Amino acid sequence: MKHNNFNSKNENIGRDSLLEQRNNPKPVLNIIGYKYYELGLFDSNDKRITILKDFLQEKLITYIEEGYEWFITHGSIGIELFAVEVLIELKRLGYHLNIAIIEPFIQQPKDELNDWQIRRNKVIEQVEYHNYIYKKRYEGPWMLKGANLFMMEHSSASLIFYDESSNSNLKYYYNALVDYSSNHVYNILRVSFDELNDFISFNYDN
């Protein structure tokens, strides 16, 4: 794994740019989505994860073919982790792409890792870039707001799996995306549960 620094206005993260959006002619896609418990997925071997990943693969191949070469995400356990796993597999199949997991802050270390955390650590070892926006422990909601803005500033679009009918903190991220896109040339690619259900109905018997 490469350990290049990531350029940012935020002094907490390095200045030598791996993903300098302003000088990068290729679009960068930021991936956002529900955490595993918001999807009712408490077992890391739940068979529904395979269906979710098939759905994400169809989406991501479309964006790769449209010219996206860098995919960035906070890497939360859930949609974001599944998307990175799909991208890693697509790289193995010959698709040209790069992946960056950029966490908002340094997590408190666990005495014992659960299956989800072990799975996530394995993924981190396989991406081109991993770093933290704030190189310290969580101090307050302002960190999440700043981290989300960082991701918007370093991408040209966000793919967000979000349904307004759900009770999720993703609504704050989505609202921030809407505000940001009103003042910048920026695309919001939103995916809803209806779209997922249509995919399931079309591709699976049950």
TrEMBL record:
InterPro entries, per database record: YspA
Q: Which Gene3D superfamilies match?
A: 3.40.50.450
Name listed for the protein in its UniProt record: Putative phage-like protein YoqJ
The organism encoding this protein is Abyssicoccus albus
The organism's lineage is: Bacteria, Bacillati, Bacillota, Bacilli, Bacillales
